[in-house]
Amino acid sequence: MYAVHLSSGHSIQCKSIKASTIDQYLLAASSLIRCFTQQDYRKDKLGDRTMGAYLSGVMRDIRRYETMADRREPYDHRMHALACKVAAKFPIISLVCCLTDGFEQGLCTGYRLTEWAQPAGKTNVLSPHGNGRTGPECKTRAVIPNDIRAVGLCGVMHPGLSPASTPLSVYWNPKSRHAKLVDGSAIEKFMRRLAAAVYNLHPLHDKADLSKWSSHSLRVGARVILHIMGFSDRDIQWILRWKSMSFVMYFRNVAILSRRQNAAFDRLQALPRL
After folding, report:
1. Shared-domain flag, residues 77 and 145
2. Which domain of life is it from (predicted)?
3. Which DSSP string do the residues of the chain spell out, in sequence order?
């Protein structure tokens, strides 16, 4: 049942199967096959004491992924499709529309939080999060209108907002009747609501699972999409501006990769044997 569920591109309540459990599955399958072939299929040769090169490589990567602290789940196309559907019901200057715009840009560029929004609680348009540099030309880490040609503020322009210092992600708050900056808490709240709807997670019972979605999920999602589309690791590192190769820890065994792998083995089986 696990195999059928995973091969169709689903996950088990956002939880990965542990390496120790996979080891047990491999042993059980090998023991069954050995009754008919007298060979442990996990090993390359009969006399080997260790697992074969292919399986040992896979298990090594799985164990390495388990060592990652504070892992994040990717923001994916299904979540974004739902976000666009929800945003269509709101005014263009609303927080929901501004978040959806930011999510779409983030999937294309792999935004860091500081590149498009603000830390939690930093919503005042007159004092965006600074980057330690001085001078009127760089008052915020986030992208500003002057950084991009032929673009206005994401959501709303206001006489008090400056194209040279105000971040793109600005929305109109109808309660305070003021423009506000998008912050990390608003991102997490909306993204986790989308994840709960898409993955059928309960807001309270599955709170620990939902906490795996945050602003960093945009970078993870962008990385997974490029990997699925066949970009090399070096290309992904360059496009998404990763400083190291740490992003390889976010590989996902999605359905399209499984189909490509199966197709490769089908082609291998079709080759003439010498």
Report:
1. yes
2. Eukaryota
3. -HHHHHHTT--BTTBPPPHHHHHHHHHHHHHHHHHHHSS-TTSSSTT-SS--HHHHHHHHHHHHHHT-SS--PPP-HHHHHHHHHHHTTS-TTSHHHHHHHHHHHHHHH---HHHHSB-TT--BTTSPPP-S--STT---SS--GGGSTT---EE---TT--TTTS-SEEEEETTTTEEEE-BHHHHHHHHHHHHHHHHT--TTTTHHHHTT-STTHHHHHHHHHHHHTT--HHHHHHHTT-SSSGGGGG----HHHHHHHHHHHHHHHHSPP-
Most confident of 30-39, 54-63, 210-219, 247-256: 210-219
Q: Are 97 and 155 in contact (CB under 8 A)?
A: yes
Range of the domain at 134: 72-274
Interstrand relation of 178-181 and 154-155 (parallel, antiparallel or unpaired): unpaired
Weakest mean pLDDT among 13-17, 110-114, 164-168: 13-17
Confidence class for position 134, pLDDT limits 50, 70, 90? very low
Q: How far is CA 59 from the centre of its chain?
A: 22
- What is the value of pTM for the model shown? 0.68
Identify residue 231 by its one-letter amino acid code.
Answer: F
Q: Is the per-residue pLDDT at 221 higher than 60?
A: yes
The two tokens of residue 94 are 């609303």
**Same domain (yes/no): 54, 88:** no
pLDDT in tens, 108-117: 888 888 888 8
Residues 177 and 260 in one domain: yes
Residues 126 and 262 occupy one common structural domain: yes
